[in-house]
Every structure is written in structure tokens, then in C-alpha cells.
Give the backbone structure.
Amino acid sequence: MEIKTDEYNVAYNSDTATAICKGSFLLSSAEEYAPILQILNTAAEQQPKQLTLDVKELEFLNSSGINMFTKFVISVRKKTTLQLVTIGYEGIPWQVRLLKNLQRLLPTLKLKLE
Amino acid sequence: MIQIFGHFIEEFQDDNEYLKICFSPRSVSLKQRWRTNGLSADFIADYLQAFFTGKPKNINEPNAPIPAHSKNAVKYVANELLENAMKFSDDTLGFATKIAFHLYDDKLVFHVTNSIKPEIIKDFQNFINELLQEEPNELYFRRMETNALDDNNHRSGLGVLSMICDYSAQVAWKFETLETSPPITLVTTMVCLEV
């Protein structure tokens, strides 16, 4: 599953159960983020034991994008057998803040800062 | 009539570094204007980066807010302000949306002024009052939970809450109703990032 535009790329690799987000997320509304959320939700529905969300190459995220990630994480709360892991860069403060906020919503979330 | 919400710092024409951009209301479609928000925010952040002289904050604290002087902080605030202005302005009135920022030794101050559709003023002011009365972090996470359950919530306030909670911004608003017939209301959103 993949979405590729001039501004961003979202791809899910089912072999490694990893969703990678790259580029800039500057979409205007929940409706515009729906296809990206759909990739993440579909990945979770495949019921891997561990699902990794890698945002370290995400350069920018607006508040509608924060909304999209929080919706996804809150939906994962119901999937008690799924371990969600998130990866970001320690040197990018907004990524650290985002992932810690997501961890507050889902305390079982594992956070890896590279 | 003027109504102020929060600690509003007025925009002064002074000797400090400042930049102003106006967006003509009807020159391009909303979709095209949306694309320019990111470009405009990038330009503002690049421009400010060259002049920033503030002191770095300690980013090693686990819950430290994002350093204001980072290019991302400026781009984030500028983009959110422009997004909100584009979303909620009344295109029929012909008022240009204006964004201005002033750079001081200890702070960056943004002002975005746009017209506002009359039917959304009450809800907007109710949200501002809620924001000013409640603990922002609690409100932030409560809004995330509410948004996750309600796909029809198009005005979540997450942009403003993220500026306050993630970037330690101070946000205030000025509503000015002009004596026209019918009355037209302009709203100026002020964001102050201390550095």
C-alpha cells in the first residue's frame, strides 16, 4: 500500500509491518488525510503482533496531521494484541513531542528515538 | 466595537525587524491558496532564521517545549495561522488576509488579521473562553479524544492548542466589528513566542 505525491510519501511494507511517512504533511482537513489514515488502519487490521510507524523522514506536520495520527493511535487502543512502535529522530524536537503525546494517548506505545 | 481575549500585544510600527504579507481574497482558488500556505510559511521561517538572535532553550528536558527559534517552530505557527485564516475568513467581503510578524530580542510576535463569517463568531469565542479558563494540556488531550470519535468535528481547535502546549506560545485575539451595513467583523490572532 502506498501513496506518493510531490509533497509526501506513505508506504506500508507488510513483510516488516512497517509504515513509513516521508516528506511534508500539509493537507487541509480530515477528509484529505483519510487515504493516509486508511493505510494505517488497514495495516493494523492485518493484525501483526507489532506494527511500526516510522516518521523520522517526515519533515513537517500540521495540526490536521496531528489529528490524523491521534485518531489512528486511539483506534489502536482497542486492539489489545497489537504492539505499536513509533520511530522518530531525537534531534527533531517536534517529532519527539508528537511521539510523546501519542504515547500519552496509548501508554503501551513503544517509542524509539534514533 | 472591539473585544479582546487573552493578553493581546498590539502591533507597533517600530525599529525592530518585521515582515508583512497580504493575501488578496479572490485572486486564486482556495485549493491553490492552501498550497501557498506552506510556501508562505517556509518563506517566513527562512526570512526569520536569518535574523533570529534569541537564546536557545534546554532541549534535553523530556517535556521541554520545542525551541522557539527553530525554523520548524516559526513555520508551524505561521502555517497554522494562515490555515485558520483561510478556513474561516469570509471570501465575499473582499478583505485581504494579512500576516505580520515582528522580531524582538526576547520574542517573536505574529499577527494575522482576517474577516470572519458571522455565523461562526459565537462558537469561536466560546472556544476561546474555554481555552482561557481551562488547563491547556488537559483541553488539548480531551480534544484529541473527542476528534477521534467525531468525524464531523471540523473545528477542533487543535492548531491553537498545539501552539500553546507544544510550542509554549501565548495566543490572544482581537475582534473588531466595523460600522458597516451589515456589520463586518475582523479578527486578529496574535501569537507570541518567547525566545
Q: What stands out?
A: Strands of chain A lie at 2-4, 8-13, 18-25, 50-61, 83-88, 110-113.
